[in-house]
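Fold this complex.
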Amino acid sequence: MATTSRDLARPPTRNALRRALDSDIFYSFRRSPVVVAAAIVTLICFIGAVCAPWLAPHNPFDLKTLNLIDAFTPPAWMDEGTRKFLLGTDDQGRDVLSTIMYGARISLAVGFFSVLFAMTLGVSLGLISGYVGGALDAFIMRVADVQLSFPAILIALLIDGLARTTLPRDVHDRVIVYVLILAIGITGWVQYARTVRGSTLVEKNKEYVQAARVIGRHPVAIMARHVLPNVMGPVLVIATINLAIAILTEATLSFLGVGVPPTQPSLGTLIRVGNDFLFSGEWWITIFPGAALVVMVLAVNLLGDWLRDALNPKLR
Amino acid sequence: MSEAARAVPAAANGPLLAVRDLARYFDVSRPLLNRLIEGDRRQILKAVDGVSFAIARGQTLSLVGESGCGKSTVARLIVGLYTPTRGTIDFEGVDLAGLSRTALAPIRRRFQMIFQDPYASLNPRWRVADIIAEPIRAHGLIAGADAVRLRVDELLRHVGLAPNDGDKYPHEFSGGQRQRISIARALSSNPDFLVCDEPTSALDVSVQAQILNLMKALQREFGLTYLFISHNLAVVYYVSDRVGVMYLGRLVELAEAKTLFARPQHPYTRMLLDAIPDLEMSGRARIPVAGEVPNPLAPPTGCAFHPRCPWANERCRSERPELKATPTGAAACHAVEERRLPDARVVAPPALPS
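Structure:
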């Protein structure tokens, strides 16, 4: 993909790292300070979220460490704040910074796995649709059209509501994260399917695919080994941008009260809970999770935009 | 005829491949809704319409013709990329036309194809060694990664590349080198029969001769049989034993290469040969290439060539000529049959640019 005249002139090096550092993509990465900043912020968010049990100053879910006397402590730099709670505490005396780190963990996990699910589903259906063609293609694409005519959040609400009514309460609370991943994932597959189908239609008429057919490879092998690697570029870009959207969808669902419960709060749940205290003066309970969400989504989105431009040869 | 041919097992010196009455129609109609609303009729493109020929073992048959005459479609029909609308493809007495993908698998190893565009025929994401080894792995011909690699190195050397080229990606090679990789891939399953669809037309003139020489050398070494598709008459003269001239989906003339170039029978062949430029422009009179290829969706009645033929008469306009034996081979032309054509001018064979 990132072939330059330099690449052709130089003897081939097997050192993948050196080649990556020398590529066009890394060059365009270094050149843009905004993208570098976004990457650093994303990295901090990821590390903070993934390593929350080790990095967070408190464990907000360990009931032994909670003290209701600490409730509604403002951030450290305000008059009544203490160094112990850097960003203040919520109504139950939980450290806001720690809950944000633990909440981001759930938000990111739901976002990441729902994107993975949507990608797997969409790429498979798109490949089959484009490669096989005919009536199957028409069927898959009409289903995609129908789904596109509903807002994504509505479909997620529908699936979530269905799970809520059919599953017993205690089971539901345990599987809610998986239900969310499924619900958000299903809203996203259409985009992947359409992109992959378009690229597949182009690739399947290229002679290397015909050569594989002459050799007698199974159609599934041709799709997986020949077509798939050549249609994945745009998919990765969509996945990055959709990660931000998936995190926002999860936050929206949780804010509306149909997402994860307050006992295992995501960023959206934190914002909803904190919202109740916004007008009584305890603004930090909702503003800080909100700010964390905005920063995280913005950083991921900037990265996705950059990736889209960097991988698009027409914009170079 | 075909029943009798199939009953007798193919003799070792019989034709390797025999194609009988091969046809492929494409439905190029507009969508059903548009046809219903606008009253359009179904449109059928007869890309190949009743082509018959045979190729003897170790020989090269070339198909020539203008763009859109169906020569590439014949190639794709034979290797199974298209299913024929009609006709049989006998490969050593087995009809390939009716076989499913799994039934075809054991025979697949024995024929391969070389494609026109060396930039599109190699998967850009695969290393060259994997590209060449694909037929070996697909057919399970050699067991063990080391043994496969040894075979790939051997093949790379056969086509004039270095064994360590196998670790590179296709974009690191020039067009001619890529075509060599393509040839190595085609050879890797030890085929008997290669279909070459304009293998040199995307290459520089200087590289064309190298590739053709390589192909001829490999043919001698491995006893390969070629079906060679081209529109370049100089290339065809250089590589072929026999030549078939196609026009609008049908064979109009079939003859030994030397005879065809020296004494062309069909008016279309004469026109094609007259259009070859030569360095000794002796000011000789040429029949200019008149007219254009008719719309294949609405081919002319009778002989498809009659609107462009200076010798066409009423019979040519109404009755379609069949391929019939002539003193030099076979031609589908009423005028040739009725011997009302002037003797063909002896043309100097086209020179291959070196």
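The two ends of chain B are 45 Å apart (CA to CA).
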